[in-house]
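Weekly structure sync - notes
Attendees: PM, LS, DV (DV joined late)
Agenda: review two folding runs queued last week.

Item 1: First target. Sequence and structure tokens pasted below for the record.
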Amino acid sequence: MKPRDALADLRRIAFLLERANEATYRVRAFRSAAKTLAELPAAELTARAEAGTLTQLPGVGDVTARTVTESLRGEEPVYLRRLAATDGVDMDEAAQRLRAALRGDCHTHSDWSDGGSPIEEMALAAVELGHEYLVLTDHSPRLKVARGLTADRLRRQLDYVAAVNDQLPPGFRILSGIEVDILADGSLDQADDLLARLDVVVGSVHSGLNDDRGRMTRRMLTAVANPHLDILGHCTGRMVSGRPKGVTGPGDRGHRARTRPPSDFDADAVFAACAEHDKAVEINSRPERQDPPKRLIRVALEAGCRFALNTDAHAPGQLDWQRFGCERAARCGVSADRVVNSWPADRLLSWTRSHDEPRGR
């Protein structure tokens, strides 16, 4: 294929990032790379791209080097393609369409673990929002700070949820679930027989968030391959500062505004595994999480992943935070047909059961 203009592609990416009001440092990275590479003779630029030595130049990182290499091969760079997918789209309208398509929420907490409200209150709030189902995903045993459920407490909760479902309005139901910790070796923090009884299993890393890249990648790959896991929760573990205008404190235990850098892992490998095993990547709507960041949502989208647009709600009012996740998802070109909680409950359950047939549900 005929080579593209690599410098023009870098500048176009910077322009689209800037127009989308992305972080200044990200815009600067592409403009700086374009400035550095503009000083090279065309032959040297091509030779460095073929030899993989572009990153030896000042201002050229892995992402910008990959972009240039793809351009010189005659390919539209993946980064540019992801941005172009949402170019010119009315984001408010796209986010509203996505929100309207959602039928439930697959990641919520009650006062059985670190939530602030009883299960019944969470369910009735979901009914008022027009949901058809709510997946209850209280924490697993090792997260003691969040009052994680032991096996015995989880069994009692399953019986309790069955009784509550009998009292809820017709057409709505609570689905059983758990947010299970992904342990250091990638195993899941609950007994297999109990995980097999649950409707939806969200797996998240809550400890060892500073593991090195190789260890964290192996840990996540092991978890994604586990047949009991359905959704990979808040995959980077990051906390960002601030909340959208008008959002006050969460009013639940253990969630205070603070910052925390994202974990380091091979996103290409992890999201490829999610696509291979047909597991969903969570787009966590909590304003202090915004996890994954948009660049990783685009990587997961490119990998062919499904998504779960969840609130991680710890109080009834937080169930309306899905709109924040929808805004971020829309900016990345995520459509409703890629989101598992846009499905009716029966289709959702058919999908989760397919991961581990028979699951004994």
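Item 2: Second target, run right after the first with the same settings.
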Amino acid sequence: MTSAVASVAIQGEESAPTTRCRILATAERSFREIGYQKTTVADIAKTLKMSPANVYRFFDSKKAINEAVVERLIGEVEALISGIADRPGSSAGARLSAVIAALHRDTLERCRAFPRMHEMIEAAMSESWEVCRHHVDRIGAVFERIVVDGVRRGEFETSDPAAAARCLHTAIARYSHPILVSQYPDAPVPDLAVMTTFLLRSLRPGDCR
């Protein structure tokens, strides 16, 4: 391979991640502005001034683009709560409360700022995208990490931290599930602070409840 050809090949390889990121950014913006259902691969390609075939070089289907967009969005949430869970100097109870509040606040803010985005979330849920299942697992792992630490510190009492974490995650679904938050904003539910206090009380050692 001549140096000129090698240079072109390297440039092509180096530009691939940039092109992929541009496709995802354009798709995400289109989902927010005109909606998931109305966005096509042709629309994304047209905005980027490239052919649909070129988009398909990086993503083999519209679903693959959607999954990558969802993964990027939920990755931000996962990083946020993971940082809270590992915050030094805070009690397990304080960290658990902060994680629950952060999940609710993030969901609420995204639903208000980008109301059309829930179309994509609905599709992801109904089609059982693996990215959503992995997200649920990772959120549950954060809860479990805090519960385990709480047990170690004597703040919490449970013989099965994994089950306790799943219960916590299920209990706050009404406050952190994008579809429930966006489509049923006025459903009668306890205030989040009341629910959080209830959940923390359920984890305290018997003589501290």
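Discussion on item 2: Residues 1-60 form a domain with the Arc Repressor Mutant, subunit A fold (CATH 1.10.10.60).
Action: LS to circulate a short write-up before next sync.
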